[in-house]
Amino acid sequence: MTEHVDALVIGAGPAGLAASLSLVRARRSVLLVDSNRPRNSATLHAHGFITRDGISPLELRRLGRAEFESYPGAAFHSGLVRSVLPADEAGDARFTVTTKGMRGEPNREVTAQAVLIATGLVETLPALPSIRAWYGTNLHSCIDCDGYEKADAALALIGESSDLAERAFLLSQWSRDLMVFTNGVGEVTAEEEAALRRRGISVDRRAIRDIVGEQGAMTGVELEDGEVIQREGGFVRPQWTPAALSFLQHLPVETDADGLILVDDHGRTSVPGLYAAGDSIAPGAGQLMVAAGTGARTAAAVNRDLLGSLLDVYRDGPGD
User: Fold this and answer.
1) Is residue 7 classed exposed, middle or buried when 0-12, 13-18 and 19+ CB atoms within 10 A define those classes?
2) 144 in helix, strand or coil?
3) What is the DSSP code (8-state) at residue 187?
4) Which fold has domain 126-237?
5) What kind of architecture, by CATH, is found in domain 3-122+240-316?
6) How confident is the model at residue 277 (pLDDT cuts 50, 70, 90)?
7) What is the pLDDT of residues 7-48, one digit of tens each?
8) Where is the FAD/NAD(P)-binding domain (predicted)?
9) Is 169 in contact with 192 (CB distance < 8 Å)?
10) d(CA 129, CA 131)
11) Of 43, 82, 163, 193, which has the highest C-beta tally within 10 A?
């Protein structure tokens, strides 16, 4: 039997949890679906989230889910979304969502008046043998989140993108002992390199062999020619891909050049009834607090849209 809810939220990170909590408090029936594959699972501490500075991201998710599930109308499903399709049946349902159950839960088919995407991003790190061993402890991706903990340390910024100079400039707020490593791929123009040099930041364009360390601490960046540049830690610039692209191929959702979902100021996508919040929307990866804010903002729009217009209520006569 197909289930029905007012709103189905995909993703139980800060954006999805904030949206789900707001909607269930608006007395909406809400199903929150999550595959338990958070991008920040390797991170030990999350920073900058008011009243929760330094909390484990997994603990933050646990607390948020418990708050959500304490309300009538709230339901959680451990599953991976397979598809979001226009609903076949007439009535209030706009979408049919199918899932693959996880952790012993069955597959489900659910219809919903509104679907809110908060699945975030899938990240791909530079292909270095040991980079995962240091990621989340010595190496991080979010400068705003973890820059304070790396203050005045000898840092590396590793990436293969064209925005390394801008990221290095931002990171120099916390440490001037900084080197940019392009791994022979990342783009730093001559003008950008000169500007960074004036700020005391050097650029190394050689290919990287690996990240090295001892006794559980990163000690340097080993280059392909064998030289080891001493570094205590740093930041890596992953390549990010919106996770929602895997199940949205049957809906005409507008995205930007990076695949991020385009939304209006209230989280509405180009498909009526479909919304998005968090890192899936431009500008992409950001702080947890910012993601949660977009979730709450979008939930308000979902609730208002589900009511319909005041003119419709006036025309149709008294309702419930």
Assistant:
1) buried
2) helix
3) -
4) FAD/NAD(P)-binding domain (3.50.50)
5) 3-Layer(bba) Sandwich (3.50)
6) very high
7) 999 999 999 999 999 999 999 999 999 998 877 777 888 899
8) 6-292
9) no
10) 6
11) 43
